[in-house]
Amino acid sequence: MKSESSASSKHESLPELKLELSKGRAEDTKADVLVVFATKKVEHKKSGKADKKAAASAKAVVEGLRTEITHDVMRLIGGSDEGAASSFSGGSGETLFFRQQGLGAARHLLVVGLGETKSFEIETLRQAAAHIMGQLKAQKCKAAAVNLDTVPHTAIPGDAWMQALVEGLHLSAYQFAEFKAADKSTAVENIHLVSTTRHKSLEKGLQAGEVIAEAVNFARFLGDMPGNRMTPTLLGEHAQKVAKGTKLKVSVWDKAKIKQEKMGSFLSVSLGSSQEPKFIVMEYKGAATSKKPIVFVGKGLTFDSGGISIKPSAGMEEMKYDMCGGAAVIATLAAIAKLKLKINAVGLVPATENMPGPSANKPGDIVIARNGKSIEVNNTDAEGRLILNDALCYACELDPAVILDAATLTGAMAVALGNLHTGYFTRHDKLATKIATAAGATGEWVWRMPLTDFHAKDMKGTYADLSNISSGKGAGSATAAAFLEQFVEKDIPWAHFDIAGTAWHTGDRWPYNPRKGASGVMVRTFVQFAMNE
Question: Is 385 a catalytic residue?
Answer without folding.
Answer: yes
